[in-house]
Structure formats: structure tokens, C-alpha cells
Amino acid sequence: MKPSSEEEEVVQGVGPWDECFEVAVQLALRAGQIIRKALTEEKHVSTKTSAADLVTETDHRVEDLIVSELRKRFPSHSRFIAEEATASGAKCVLTHSPTWIIDPIDGTCNFVHRFPTVAVSIGFAVHQELEFGVIHHCTEERLYTGRRGQGAFCNGQRLQVSRETDLAKALVLTEIGPKRDPDTLKVFLSNMERLLHAKAHGVRVIGSSTLALCYLASGAADAYYQFGLHCWDLAAATVIIREAGGIVMDTSGGPLDLMSCRVVAAGTREMAVLIAQALQTINYGRDDEK
Ligand code: IPD
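C-alpha cells for the assembled complex are given below, as produced in the milestone run.
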């Protein structure tokens, strides 16, 4: 079968990933300016899958900007997985074609409350392989980047994960996820309790999956786990963590499945396995089946 024009670029090895990366960086910085300004302004807030799953006009504005600029700059790219388009019914499918995976505001609830832990996340995959990730911590003006085989950086400084293998010496990060029904909360809290019983130094919830994963990549935490995050929360951060020397895996202990709405990440495989073994599953379904 003849490859499509967008696949041909990959087959011939002339894929413009350098240019794609540079454009992603510029767009993440531009988006950051918009978000910083909007943070202090009045917001129109709506809910999506639950009362804790929020969206504002700024999420839409930033997503529209990023997607429309990418379409202009890379007209042969037709695959976009973007949080708000998906919420409006767009399918979430990772094919072999170059695919942009975008979270316009990660930490929307923080954004609504002016809690300053808010990010833009842009990931890029080809042949279902993550090529690069760009995450902009908007309020602290920190730009995290990772490119497959080329390392991970924050504002130009190379990132390195922690080498901790002992759960009893670990600082662990997690996020609550959008479901708040009693059964889900029970398992969420019992997972946290199990890690505290195992004598982890602490378990933190900062309200942004992507930034928590960036802290892990920086060595500021030893592990991360979550049920209920999405491929746009994970894509860019996964490249950054791997390039910083870390492990990103499924909560079953198997390989990461970007569409599975669950993850364990750590500086070392030993730590990731210990966390995975401690967890009870919360079923959030799959992004590609919604
Ligand atoms: C959410 C945040 C939140 C996490 C959710 C994410 P959003 O992203 O990262 O902390 O618990 O699972 O989906 O909705 O702010 O982009």
C-alpha cells in the first residue's frame, strides 16, 4: 500500500522533527504568556466529566492557538489529540502518522483558583513512538524539554532523576483524578495509605500531572503514580522522564500504554515496581475507547 504523504516524510527520513520541536517550544512559550495574563482575570468555568473536572475559555483559546499554528506550519500533519477537542467528541487515536498530543492547560483547577502550578504540555509521536515533549510551567517560567536520544532539560539545564530504590526513603507524587464517588475515593485513599504504611517520606498532590512528572524528571521526587490521567497529561512528560534516566510503566508493572489512563513513573525500575505492587487499580477506561 502506498504510504500517505505524511507517512512518506517519515519513511524517507526527512521528517522535520527539529523544526517541529522548535515550533512546539515557541508555542508553549506563547501559550504561557496568555495563561499568565488570564490567571488573574475573571474566568468562565464549566465542568466536564465531573464537578472537579474543569474547563475555562482560556483552555479553549490556548488549544485553538496551538492547533491552528501547528496546522499552518505543518500542513501535512493531520493528527491532533488535544484535551478540549476530545472533550467535545473528537476521537483519541494514535496512528503511525506524526501526531501532536496537546494539553493547553494542565492544572485547570489550579488555574481557576490562581494556585500557581499550571502548565502547557505538547508531545509529538511518530509511528506511535514519542519523539519529543515540551512542558512550560507558566507561572515559574520553566521550560522542560525532552527529545528522544538527546536528553531532557529545564531552561537549558540537564535533568537527572533520583536513583532511590528504597520506598521507605521516597517522596512520592500522585494526583486525585476526576472521579469523586465513594468507591473511587476509598481506593485512592487506601493506595496513599499503603505507601505511607510502607514508610514513604511523603505523598504529595500538586494539582498538575505534567508538572508532578517534571518534578520527578528533575530528581525532586522519587516516584509518581496515578489512575485517571490522560494521554495529553502523559505524552510530553514521558519523553522528559525517560531522557532524564527514569522509568515510565503501566500500574500492572508492564510496559506503558499511553491510552490506558494510568501510570507509574520513578527514577529507578526497582522503585517503580515497588509502587506498582502496592497499588489497587481504579478503572478509568481507555482514552481510545471514549
Ligand atoms: C488534570 C490535572 C489533575 C489530574 C487529572 C488531569 P487538566 O489535567 O493534571 O491534577 O488529577 O488527572 O487530567 O484537566 O487540568 O488538564
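Confidence is low (pLDDT under 50) at residues 1-15. Residues 129 and 214 are 20 Å apart (CA to CA). Further analysis is deferred to the final report.
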